[in-house]
Amino acid sequence: MLMRTDPFRELDRLSQQLMGPGTWSKPSAMPMDAYREGDQYVVAFDLPGVTAEAIDIDVERNMLTVKAERRPVTKGADVQMELSERPLGVFSRQIMLADTLDTEHITADYDAGVLTLRIPIAERAKPRKISIGVGSGHKEISG
C-alpha cells in the first residue's frame, strides 16, 4: 500500500552521509519501517535526538511528508570536540499513500526517538457483504 517516490533514495542517502548535514533545500534521508497491523498501516521513522517540536508532518492528497531537524548541542567555550559522528541538520522522507488509506485520521506518537504514524484503512477499502435481492427475498454474498 506504500510506494516509494524515488527509486534512487538509498543512493541519495549514502551520498548525503558523505557530503555532510542536510539542509531545508536538500534534506538527508531518515530510516523507516512500514507494515500492516490489523486494519491500519504503521510507519515508524528513526529520529534519535530530535525533539517532538522539531518534527513536521503533513499530508497533501496522498503524499505524506515528514521533516525533522536535529541541531547541534551548544557547548561551552572551554569544550573541544574530539569526535562528531551523529548526523545533524534536516531530515525528510516522502511516501505516496494508496487511495485505500484514510489520510483524514492519521495519528502520530513520538517515543524514545521513534516517530510512529498509524494510518487506518479506509472503510470503502475494507471487504463487505452485499445483499442481492431475489424476488421478494435477499441473499447475502461475499463482495
From TrEMBL:
Q: Which SUPFAM superfamilies match?
A: HSP20-like chaperones (SSF49764)
Q: Where is the SHSP domain?
A: 23-135
The UniProt entry, under PROSITE patterns, shows: SHSP
Q: What is the designated name of this protein? A: Hsp20/alpha crystallin family protein
Q: InterPro entries per the record?
A: A-crystallin/Hsp20_dom, HSP20-like_chaperone, Small_HSP
Any Pfam family hit = HSP20
Q: Which organism is it from?
A: Streptomyces yunnanensis
Q: What lineage is this protein's organism placed in? A: Bacteria, Bacillati, Actinomycetota, Actinomycetes, Kitasatosporales
Which family, according to the similarity comment? Belongs to the small heat shock protein (HSP20) family.
